[in-house]
Predict the 3D structure of the following.
Amino acid sequence: MGVEKFGPVRVGLLGIGTVGGGTFEVLWRNRQEITRRAGRRIEITQVADRDVDHARRIVADRARVLDDAAAVVADPAIDIVVELIGGTGVALKLVLAAIEAGKHVVTANKALLAMHGNEIFAAASRRGVMVAFEAAVAGGIPIIKALREGLSANRIESIAGIINGTTNFILSEMRDKGLAFDAVLAEAQRLGYAEADPTFDIEGVDAAHKATILAALAFGIPVQFDKCYVEGISTLQSTDIKFAEQLGYRIKLLAITRRRERGEGPHGIELRVHPTLIPARRLIANVEGAMNAVWVKGDAVGETMYYGKGAGAEPTASAVVADLIDVARVLTADPENRVPHLAFQAESISDLPILPMDDVETAYYLRMRVADEPGVLADLARILADGEISIDALLQREPGAGEDQTDIVLLTHVTFERRVNQAIARIEALPTVLSKVVRIRLEELA
Ligand code: NDP
Ligand code: HSE
């Protein structure tokens, strides 16, 4: 091939499951295009997997197959280690060992980076190697590159994303086809979207891992997963999905990170994942199935949005292979001038704190079951007014014949979470309020 000035880059692939299998196939199938783009061949020469027979069935005679991932990492013939095992146990050891051995690393492992990113990036900086992780957030969508490169002129103000394909798939299928939660989850697992432990998807942990990485990139702060507020979809009720629709909203599991350096309340970074009402007319409210979308607002560019497949073998492989090409391109470049891992220089880290949930500002959907008697609405309005919470909309279901209870749904204007917590405690203490208050946060995303 005429464009080649250098010999091949030799890659060791650790884990050939869903994403590893996709990566092997995409790199092989598109090898001519990829060589043209990278300026040199990128060859997976060694593959390690616990299940050697399964690995051999995929790889055939195209690479050496081993069951010992540490041996691949230690082999001087390997230039780049691709970690696609997952988790934070053996994967952490292998990634740190690869860095210590002076190898560049590509990974799709958001849990690993959200929990141990600071240690990994520090080790990589010391050794002058790259750690690339495009596939770790939003699968095939190049959102890391967008933030690190395309939007690098901007002061990022907010990011809101549907960044877990499994939960978006579950919410869409349940709403459109009326399917049961467990059946849709099983299908997401069959399609390779779900994490090894699917509670990570359902309880919002996977989205929080990704949001933590996005916040670090966007705001120049360290990765701080432990400060991310996380609420999943397991307690979401179909009643609320229907009420939200009547009010012109869709409910999505949204990851939100936002800079707050003006106005009332402490300044810092909001970092949170929770079911969220979004106006149905917004593009992001119409992102369905396993698709992901990330909305980014920068001071110069304004609003931008990135859409694509957030999970699955080849969409994720698309991002892994793009990272391999990037690493291959800069392998011979001056290490001092490589793009820093989180897009900012380690010595210029920002000390903006992650705000506690009490200090978060958003609007709210509140639903409660109440006794159908005079004075109930007046009590609710008084409690909200005492808390300086302004009501945006109100919906009261007509009680059925003979019923002496009904549901009230309230939408509030933007306020502080602490005020809403105090108001909910007072509302739940009213004798006429017969249920816990269902609270779902609401974002206009404008
Ligand atoms: P899989 O479970 O499908 O693949 C992991 C592979 O690694 C399996 O073949 C597993 O073998 C093997 N493995 C486990 N332990 C070892 C070990 N000690 N040495 C060698 N091989 C080992 O996971 P995925 O491909 O779905 O995910 C891989 C990573 O990519 C994870 O970090 C995940 O979060 C991330 N990711 C996944 C996406 C997706 O859509 N699936 C999208 C974006 C990121 P065995 O099966 O025997 O355990
Ligand atoms: N389990 C993840 C999801 C895989 O469903 O989005 C992609 O990161």
